[in-house]
Amino acid sequence: MANRMTQLRKIAASEMSKDDFSSGVLSSLSWQRLARCSLLMTALSLTLSGCLLGPDYQRPELALPARYNAPEPSVTPVASASGAAQASVNAQWWTLFGDATLNQLVQAASQDNADIQIALARIRMTEALAVQAGAALYPTLNLTASGTRATSGPSVSVTGVGVQANTSQVGLLTSYELDVWGRVRRNIESATAVASASQYEKDSVSLTVAALVSNLYLRLRSLDAQMAVLKDSVRTRTESVKVAEAKLQGGLVSPIDVNQGKAALAASQASLSEVTRQRAIAQNQLGVLTGKLDLMIPAGDVRQLPSPPLPPEGLPSTIVESRPDVNRAEQDLIAANARVGVATAGLFPTFSLVGLFGAQSVAFSSFLTSQSSVWSAGIGLLQPVFSGGLLQGRLDYAKAQQQEALGGYVKVVRNAFGEVSDALVSVQQTLQTEQYLQQQVQASTKAQELAALRYAAGYVDFLNVLESQRVANEANLAFVINRSARLQASVDLFKALGGGWVIRP
Predict the structure, then answer these.
(1) Counting CB atoms within 10 angstroms of each CB, which of 37, 377, 399, 407 has the fewest?
(2) DSSP state for residue 71 in the 8-state scheme
(3) Angle subtended at Cα 158 by Cα 152 and Cα 163, rounded to the nearest 5 degrees
């Protein structure tokens, strides 16, 4: 390579040393020679740019189980499918809940959420840095111009007379670094990976915001259902107090029954007030996430929301590759890997091509004529000799960054696998729990009705009524809370997988 470079430099120098300018304009022969010089410089650049130092990126191989293992549910799933290859990602997974209000909230958050706006700005920043890195592949061209006027006194003049001289200069100055060792290309590779990582970061933020909105909305609907349960409890306990007061007036019971009934009624009313407070806070939080600070959501019921389908059995572990945080961690690793090449290239000499074409004259009348034409071309070399360990330190630092990025990638992938496994367990077990709670609600409601009738008829005391009401109230609240937990577990599963899934025939 060194011999070839020397030959090309000699040929280029011999061609560019000939002066074929006439009347300020290059002759056709000069243009041909200048073109040949350009071709020679291009050939020189290509000859020297064949090396690419530093390690080429290879995706790390992680020892993950082939499938996700989760306990088999003892109830029939809402929807199932066989064949892991049938699972894929659905970007709009929240639509599986079939709620128009939720769809509107997620859409509003995707447009007005502050965190998403920050992520979009970071994308533009990293893309601009990638453009800056790519600019090093092209030569720079700058216009330079100057004009000076110098005066010398009689004492420094040969003739003993003061002299005034004007000098004017204008030209185009170009320079180009030959990417001999791949420093520029590795830098572009790193900047491109950083830009891609920022895009995945934005996708991760969007996924997180959608999950936050969905979980918060489901919590709000759970609080709506709890309020309905507590209002029903207030109603039944109010009726029980009226019955106890009527029996007290008839001398059939003591004042203890009335006071116990009022105490239970006050407890239900206090719980209703607390749940109302929590719902207002949840609504305000949704307003912050969606950018609608005056958001008002009508009352609803989590029990009326449909349950999304379950994923197919034998879900492959590779599905976590759809997660944006996993992709972002890999892009960070690619960028760190490329920076090792940049630091390695810094240990080797730098070759640069420089050139100047323009005009220079001491008299403005002869400016831009053939006699004032000036041009130059050359190649430069910069070889680090002693830097006190600076360059080696940069290389060691880049290698350490690469190992840090590798550890981060492994951590993100393992955490992703664990989050999917946890979400699968939560979805299946809350589904099973719901079946038992449904039976408890039916039995406790029937017991409450019977206790109220038997108390009115005088067959049981008031403690039986209060106990049956307490059990029924707790059963209904537990069912509502579990239904909310089941739906939120589905949201967590969607997020853990990087989105929902589509069942393909």
Answers:
(1) 407
(2) P
(3) 30
Position of tokens 């029939």?
A: 76
- At 361 the three-state DSSP class reads strand
Q: Which strands form 350-361's sheet, in the order they lie side by side?
A: 140-152, 163-178, 350-361, 373-382
Token pair listed for 48: 């020297």
What pLDDT is attached to residue 498? 86
Burial class (CB in 10 A: 0-12, 13-18, 19+), 468: buried
Whole-number Å distance between alpha carbons of 488 and 212: 10
Residue 410 tokens read as 């492994």
Please check the confidence at residue 21 and state whether its pLDDT lies above 60.
no
Q: Set out the domains of the chain in order of their start, with CATH numbers.
A: 73-349+384-496 (1.20.1600.10)
3-class secondary-structure state, position 357: strand
Using one digit for the tens of pLDDT, what is the confidence trace for 402-455?
A: 999 999 999 999 999 889 889 989 988 998 999 999 999 999 999 999 999 998
Backbone angles phi, psi at 54, to 5 degrees: 95, 160
Pairing assessment for the beta strands 373-382 and 21-22 based on DSSP bridges: unpaired
- 3-class state of residue 501 by DSSP: coil
Encode burial over 244-259: b for 16+ CB neighbours within 10 A, e otherwise: bbebeeeeebeeebbe
Whether 172 and 142 have beta carbons less than 8 Å apart is answered as yes
The model's pLDDT over 356-399, given as tens digits with 9 standing for 90+, comes to 776 665 555 555 555 667 777 778 888 888 888 898 999 999 99
Rounded to 10 degrees, the C-alpha dihedral 133/135/137/140 comes to -140
CB atoms within 10 A of CB 8: 18
Radius of gyration of the CA atoms of the chain, in A = 39
